[in-house]
Amino acid sequence: MTRRSCAIYGVGIVCASLLIIGIGLVVTQVFQTLIHNRLKKEITLTEGSRVFETWKNPPPPVFMQYFFFNVTNPDDFLVGAKPIVSQVGPYTYREYRPKENVTFVDNGTRVSAYQPKTFVFLPERSVGDPDYDMITTINIPAVAVMNKVKDSFWKSSMVSIWMNSLHVGMLMTRSVNELLWGFKDPLLSRIHPMNPEIDEYFGLMYKKNGSNDGEFVYHTGEEDFMNYGRVATFKGESLWTSEQSNMINGTDGSAFHPLLSKTERLYIFSPDLCRSIFMEFEKDVKVKGLPAYRFTPPRDVLASKEENPANEGFCVSPKECLGTGLLKVSVCRKGAPVVMSFPHFYLGDEKYSNAIEGLDPVREHHQTYLDLNPTTGVPIRASKRAQINILINRISGFPKTKFLNETIFPVMFINETVVIDDVSAAKLHKLLLTAMLVSNSPLVLVGLGAILLPVFIGLIMAVTTLPDVHSSVPISFSMRRHRRIENTVELKCNGILLLKERMDQNTAWLL
């Protein structure tokens, strides 16, 4: 065997080995499985894991924006005209939400925590001064009290007299700060001495700055990565009319399991809504160069019981089942006729937005969404949007309501946003790059094998076309030297054959 033949044989063995090993690793997905197992182990709510510290104290800044609906035709509205509103905002606050009293329970399979929220006003991101900007809107304390006593003739008569003596009407004009963080209401102050359970102060965010919603208990995900961050229990009562409606499903929106699929439905438990909602895949997006799946709540989430029978359990009573796009949450608002929706009644029946002049539901500005990295489940951008409305209508015993039509009146909507910070984005980029390189390393072997394949074919073609040069070799060559060369060539070729045999044995398990 000549040196040329030996070289061709060696290139062929290396080429075949690279292709066999590479294709075998691609088909069996050995490296991808290793990466996935590593992610499942690292992304858990356990001491020392990659995500535990950032879960306790999230580094990306969270911003809370408040938009108010100012009534511009108050006199006409009170005598039955269609209300006209103008949107005022945003008034932006930086939200701090570290978890406190973090404690492992149930042999470390669950972790309990409290999450107090603190808000700091950001004038540079706001349209004005909340201390001086005035908003005219529905008098929520008055409406709440009237609904509370409407079934009692004596109580309703007494409250009506108080409202007249205190000059309390169906509308009120207050500063943004008062509406958000609280003010002493004259009607509530009159009732408070007789019923201490009723606070004399009112505000849409009253007592929420520096407070928490109660104790959450989360699954760590150590036993099953699909349960990572899922809420196990929450301090609260069974509020709705069916067992299914009272179930706590999903996470609190800050953590999701790794290896997300486009076909799955993600659940989020919201204390503000007193229930869990679900979100579905909408499209692929990129945030700071990071790939993400966008999940959004579909129309079914707040659909009427006629459109989605599963939502019948969220009716306060059969008579209080509202239409698509609305959720009455009076059961967790001390009986106040509070109705939640998406901003401008987005995804709701058109009759609700048409009943108020000045509303214009637009997907881009009013949709709630979550952009999650599918490999790690890390939220890299999110916008939670919700609107607070008050149900108003004619109430027997209160002449001030005699010209009112039943209306879902918008008061304020919030936009809670977060985008991954640059430091966290850089770390996630590095993690995803490492995972990609390890997962795709078998393709490198296949690529090298593919490169050597044309080289191998070229060498074979070159051998078949070259003339036999042995006849031109002088006969005076020493036979001893010729045998020594033949022995050396044979030894080298035998070595390559032995190497091939060993490589075949080592890669046989892949086939």
UniProtKB/TrEMBL annotation:
Subcellular localization, as worded in the UniProt entry: Membrane
Gene Ontology MF terms in the entry: scavenger receptor activity
Transmembrane segments: 7-31, 443-466
Keyword annotations: Glycoprotein, Membrane, Transmembrane, Transmembrane helix
Pfam families in the cross-refs: CD36
Example of a GO cellular component annotation carried by this entry: membrane
GO-annotated biological processes: protein targeting to lysosome; receptor-mediated endocytosis
Chief location of this protein within or outside the cell: membrane
Superkingdom, taxonomy of origin: Eukaryota
InterPro entries (alphabetical): CD36_fam (IPR002159), LimpII (IPR005429)
Similarity section: Belongs to the CD36 family.
PANTHER family found in the cross-reference section: LYSOSOME MEMBRANE PROTEIN 2, SCAVENGER RECEPTOR CLASS B TYPE-1 SR-B1
Name of this protein: Lysosome membrane protein 2
Species per Swiss-Prot/TrEMBL record: Oncorhynchus kisutch
Organism placement in taxonomy: Eukaryota, Metazoa, Chordata, Craniata, Vertebrata
